[in-house]
Amino acid sequence: MRRIGVLMNLPADDFEGQARNAAFLQGLQQFGWIVGSNVRIDIRWGGGDANRMRKEAEELVASAPDVILASGTTSLRPLLQATRTLPVVFANVADPVGAGFVASLAKPGGNATGFTAFEFGSAGKLLELLKEIAPGLTRAGVVRDPMQSSGTNQFAAIQAVAPFLKVEVRPLDAREASQIEPEIDAFAHDPNGGLIVVAGGQAAVHRALIAAAAARHRLPAVYPFRYYVASGGLISYGPDNIDSFRRAAGYVDRILKGANAADLPVQEPVKHELVINLKAARALGLEVPASVLARADEVIE
Asked: Can you tell me the mean pLDDT for 161-168?
């Protein structure tokens, strides 16, 4: 009986967290690992709370599993603070090199490896998409976590394309839930605005709050992943992050069979998707251009 620890950065009742866990278990089954038969899984849910994440990480490491799966940066950081020896496979981590989690993508070099959330340059496409669905847009507030290098780098990518689209961009810091609504409320005072939500742990946990604030102020908003749109957001473009958890099972399998995390290269996403919520569009009085609808991988009615 082998033992796998899992640390999720979302609440246990979050449908996205459950989907990630299901994809991981499905991936394990494909490699012959059956829960209760030849593998035991200890899953912990951090719910986006930093103190709880730290506590769960320490307890998980103390239980000494054979390998640990980390969901997102906010799970990976406390795990690597707790251990530099137990192998850790991560999924949905935005900037593992910039955050100091691995030495390089090709040669991680430590006890962690896995799958990145996206490539930073793709953040610029979020602004392009926002301008396409709201041509009158002249201002964009970028909801990000300033304490994560990924938030800073995504904002820089958006800034790089903003002059060409004649859009002024402004950071809206969302390090904690209490900051999110006041930041969006203040930004919404002036006209012709829209929101870009970049990938980050706090935004993921509080995505319904962000979507509600955007709807209240009638702000078109674009998001990095499908599950934001499933929670009421308008439109998303980004990787299929559920796929990364399915792929992570392959790395866990290899480590259980003797591979070293330091020798497994960090991999980038292979599937991207455009998802549109027409109900949210109608509530905002927006008509999604036919050219955008034609490119959509999924349309939520």
From this structure: 94
What is the rounded distance in angstroms from the CA atom of residue 151 to the CA atom of residue 189?
A: 24
The C-alpha angle with vertex 124 and arms to 299 and 235, in degrees rounded to 5, equals 20
Phi then psi dihedrals of residue 74, to 5 deg: -70, -15
Strand 88-93 relative to strand 112-116: parallel, antiparallel, unpaired?
parallel
Angle between helices 50-62 and 73-82 (to 10 degrees): 50
C-alpha distances (whole Å) from 155 to each of 44, 128, 159, 163, 284 are 31, 14, 6, 14, 25
Express each pLDDT in 101-135 by its tens digit.
999 999 999 999 999 987 777 788 999 999 999 99
Contact 194, 211 (CB under 8 A): no
Which residue's structure tokens are 């640990």? 68
Pick the more confident residue, 178 or 130. 130
Compare 152 and 96 and report the one with higher pLDDT: 96
- Can you list the pairs that 282-290 forms with residues at least 24 positions away whose Cβ atoms lie under 8 Å? 283/215, 284/215, 284/218, 284/219, 284/220, 284/234, 285/218, 286/133, 286/134, 286/220, 286/234, 288/133, 288/235, 289/132, 289/133
State how far the Cα of 261 lies from the Cα of 263, in Å rounded to an integer: 5
Closest to 254 (Cα-Cα) out of 28, 55, 56, 100 = 28
8 CB-side CA count, 13 A: 23
The helix/strand count (H/E) of the chain reads as 12, 12
Domains by residue range for the chain, with CATH: 2-117+241-270 (3.40.50.2300), 120-238+273-300 (3.40.50.2300)
